[in-house]
Amino acid sequence: MATASCREFVIDHVADEVPQRIAAALEPRFRVVQETRRHTRQVWLDTFDWRLHAAGLVLRQMTGPGAGELVLTTCAGETVLSQPLATGSTAIGGPAARRARWPALLSAIPDGPLRDRLGPVIEVRALLPLARSEGTLTQLRVLDDELKTVARITVEAASQAQPASGPLPPRLLITPVRGYSAAAQRAARLLGAADGFAPGTEPAFAAVLAGAGRAPGDYTDKVGVTLPPSTPARQALATVLLRLADTIEANVGFVLRDVDAEFLHDLRVAVRRTRSALKLAGDALPAGLADRFAPEFKWLGDLTTPTRDLDVYLGGFGQMTERLRAAGPGDLEPFRAHLTARRLAERRKLVRGLRAARFTTLMADWRTALATAAKPPRPPGRKRAGPAGPDIATLASERIARAYRRVAKRGAAIAADGPAGGPPAEQMHALRKRGKELRYLLEFFGSLYEPTALRRAVKDLKGLQDCLGDLQDADVQQHALREFAVQMVDQPPGSGKPAELAATLLAMGELTALLHVQQDRARAEMAGRFAEFARAGSLRTLGILPGTAQA
């Protein structure tokens, strides 16, 4: 819906008649002057997970004869920023804009205010073309009786070009000039009262997406399944797992194209959740199903691990160099080159695996098995193949309580009996895995519980997980740095100058020392974080635990 300062209308007139119709609707109060009319091609852009839309923003690339720009607006159509397409840019700009290749990362947008505005919103995600359209844009000025411009009107008549073709409803957007809001609103009221100008009930972006068969927010990395408490556990769990299969398959094509690193991250999280569901509640599925598919999803998880680990190293390389004090950022450039080469090799293995028959067969067989398990039970009175089993509310409470007790038992033992230097990293890693399992169960079955209490439970658990994550990350990175150092030393002769390699290895040694400090800090915080988690009693608030959980 348009805001008070910017009004949008859907027009049922023929495009060529619109300026005359507007002028007739605004007479005698206002005069309308046409400024420009041009043919335009538009590409509507957002990230795969709708970060711009979530921030209330819409980004379009608009090109036409001799002109082009990127335009950032609010969802209501008010311009936030516009930036001409820079001539000579290798990604977008001038004549090259017609050859722009989307998806593209933020670096495809030239330096400037627009890039600065988009950066904190989209971060590391690529901008994807959601829809393409082409047509005419007509710019008009609305003048008062003193011939002062009080508003500007944009009339857009376009047809959708991709992913489906077809006409879009012509639209009119009236935007006030600063200081003339009242006059612009008066003009908007006159248009609203005239025949053929209907106030827009949805933003233009929503209409374009609807024509493309999309809806804002139609992808999320959350589980997001609503489960009635009385649903049989088998059926409910299969529904959750089908949702996770959707996430895997939604991301795999972008992983193969290497669009941005977050596609692989989302795929991996969906695989981890799937494996946890099979481990923690797989016995609710038809007999043998969990045992059949658990090894295959382990294979898939192992397949994606090396590339994702290298993505994390390369994505955090800037922060890594900022921590150096004795060494300089340039000393780590050979290390960056080594990581990049390793990623290229590991990605080839990943692509081969995702294109192999093993993966295709896994997902097809998995969907078939889950579709059968997700079918509602037969109506009463008809013969059943076996016992119905528990409902999902019963199973969820039982498994979440069990997972909580495992976290509580392991955490209490570590907090009370850790050695003088702190508990071993292996014990902390095991506790972290138990915490992840509890978190996943809360995500799977969250719709069964009161939302505020659920958010509190997740927040209490997150504090402990963050501490354990810092410790585990530091431990893993220390071992990885040592492994990378060995690999770099073992490189073929002539692949790097000895002095350069020595400086790089010394800088990596400094990073290892800094990570050790981070690990010690997290280990020292662990007991306090666990005490906060145990004291919170969030699961009792959810009604899962009747009293203090016993280890």
Could you describe the 3D structure shown?
With about 550 residues, the chain is an alpha+beta fold. It has 16 helices and 10 strands. Strands 1, 2, 3, 4, 5, 6, 7, 8, 9 and 10 form a 10-stranded antiparallel beta sheet that branches. Helix 7 crosses helix 13 and helix 14 packs antiparallel against helix 15. It starts with 6 loop residues before the first strand and ends in a 10-residue tail after the last helix.
Low-pLDDT runs of 5+ residues are 87-99, 547-551
Helix run count = 16
Main beta-sheet annotation? 10 strands, antiparallel
Strand portion: 15-25%
Structural class estimated from helices and strands: alpha+beta
User: Average pLDDT, to the nearest integer?
Assistant: 86
Helix content: 40-55%
Short description:
By secondary structure, the chain is an alpha+beta fold. The protein is 53% helix and 15% strand.
Key attributes of the depicted protein:
disordered C terminus, single chain, alpha+beta, 551 residues
Give the helices and strands, then pairings.
Elements: E1 7-11, H1 18-26, E2 31-46, H2 51-54, E3 57-64, E4 67-74, E5 79-84, H3 113-122, E6 128-143, E7 149-162, E8 166-167, E9 171-176, H4 181-193, E10 197-199, H5 204-211, H6 233-257, H7 261-281, H8 289-315, H9 317-322, H10 333-355, H11 357-373, H12 392-417, H13 425-444, H14 451-489, H15 498-536, H16 538-541
Antiparallel strand pairs: 1-9, 1-10, 2-3, 2-6, 3-4, 4-5, 6-7, 7-8, 7-9
Helix pairs in contact: 6-7, 6-11, 6-12, 7-8, 7-13, 8-10, 8-11, 12-13, 12-15, 13-14, 14-15
